[in-house]
Write a sequence for this structure.
C-alpha cells in the first residue's frame, strides 16, 4: 500500500514516528474509534502535544502498515479492516544508523572528534557505508546536534558538558518547565505518574552502595518528560522534549553524590504529590527550587531559605 499522493512507503521510519504512531493507536482505543473513523491531524497534534508535521509522518506509517487509509479529499481514516487489537508490526528504525549516531556522539564527548567533521572523515574513521553514515549525520542534524557548514563540513553543537552549556540548560529549564506545569490546561498522565512513583520509591529503597546514577538519570528523564508531555502549549512541549533528548547525551548531566541523588528523588516525589493533588501552582514553585538546587549541586543547601520539598508532602516507602 502507498501513502498519500502515491508516495512509496518508507522502509525505515524514525523511532519518534513509531512512538507517535503507537500513541495515536492508544488514543484510538481509548476513544473506542471504529474502522473508517476520521483521524483529524490537528486534533491528534493537540492531543499528543506535537505539531502536525510529525503527526502526518506517523499517520503515513499507519497507512503503510494497513491500519489507516488516506484520501486527498477527506484526509486520514482508520482502515476498513481496522480492529481494536490492531498493532504496529515494524519495520524498526535502522539499528546500524542509530548505533553509529551514538558512537559519533560518544567520540565527540570524549574529544576524539573535532568540532568540525565531514562525511568522508566519518566513513574512514568508522568503516561504515556512505549510506549509513549519511543517515546517522541526518539523524544528528534533525536533533540539532550537527549543523551544515560551507562546503562538505558539519559542525557539532556545543558540548553539553561545557560549563556554559550546563548553565544555559538550567536557565532554559527554569524559564519553561515551571511555567509549563503551572499554566492552565496542564494535563497529568495518571498511569505514567503512578508507574513513575513506584519506580522512584523503589530507587530510594536501595542501599547507598547499590544506587545506580544511570537509573537515576532514567527516572529523572521520565519525571521531567512527564511535565513536558503535560504542557498545554505544544510548542513548549516540543521545546522541552527536544531539550530532554539533549540532556541524554554523554556528559550532559553533572555528576552528583549519593546524598544529592536521594535528595533530588525525594524532591521529585514531593512535586509529584502536588501534581496528583491538582495543586499545580505549588508544584511549579517546588520545581523551581528543585532546579535551583540541582544547579547548585550543594546538598546542604536544601533547607536554607527554601521551602521543604518533602516531609509532610512525601508519600511512599522510603524516608531517606
Amino acid at each position: 500500500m502507498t501513502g498519500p499522493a502515491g508516495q512509496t512507503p518508507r522502509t525505515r521510519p524514525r523511532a519518534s514516528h513509531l512512538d507517535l504512531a503507537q500513541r495515536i493507536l492508544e488514543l484510538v482505543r481509548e476513544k473506542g474509534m471504529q474502522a473508517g473513523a476520521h483521524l483529524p491531524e490537528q486534533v491528534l497534534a493537540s492531543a499528543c502535544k506535537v505539531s502536525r508535521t510529525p503527526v502526518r509522518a506517523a499517520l503515513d506509517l499507519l497507512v503503510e502498515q494497513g491500519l489507516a487509509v488516506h484520501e486527498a479529499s477527506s484526509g486520514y481514516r482508520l482502515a476498513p479492516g481496522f480492529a481494536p487489537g490492531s498493532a504496529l508490526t515494524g519495520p524498526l528504525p535502522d539499528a546500524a544508523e542509530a548505533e553509529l549516531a551514538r558512537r559519533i556522539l560518544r567520540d565527540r564527548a570524549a574529544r576524539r572528534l573535532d568540532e568540525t567533521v565531514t562525511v568522508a572523515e566519518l566513513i574512514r574513521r568508522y568503516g561504515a557505508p556512505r549510506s549509513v553514515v549519511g543517515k546517522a549525520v541526518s539523524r544528528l542534524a534533525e536533533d540539532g546536534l550537527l549543523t551544515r557548514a560551507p562546503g562538505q563540513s558539519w559542525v557539532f553543537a556545543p558540548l553539553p558538558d561545557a560549563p556554559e552549556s550546563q548553565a544555559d540548560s538550567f536557565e532554559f529549564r527554569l524559564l519553561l518547565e515551571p511555567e509549563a506545569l503551572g499554566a492552565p490546561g496542564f494535563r497529568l498522565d495518571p498511569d505514567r505518574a503512578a508507574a513513575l512513583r513506584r519506580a522512584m520509591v523503589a530507587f530510594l529503597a536501595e542501599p547507598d552502595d547499590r544506587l545506580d546514577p544511570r537509573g537515576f538519570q532514567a527516572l529523572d528523564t521520565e519525571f521531567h518528560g512527564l511535565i513536558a508531555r503535560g504542557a498545554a502549549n505544544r510548542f513548549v512541549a516540543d521545546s522541552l522534549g527536544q531539550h530532554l533528548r539533549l540532556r541524554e547525551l554523554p556528559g550532559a548531566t553533572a555528576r552528583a553524590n549519593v546524598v544529592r541523588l536521594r535528595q533530588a528523588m525525594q524532591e521529585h516525589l514531593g512535586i509529584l504529590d502536588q501534581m496528583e493533588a491538582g495543586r499545580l501552582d505549588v508544584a511549579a514553585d517546588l520545581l523551581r527550587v528543585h532546579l535551583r538546587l540541582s544547579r547548585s549541586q550543594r546538598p546542604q543547601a536544601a533547607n536554607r531559605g527554601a521551602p521543604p520539598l518533602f516531609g509532610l508532602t512525601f508519600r511512599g516507602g522510603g524516608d531517606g
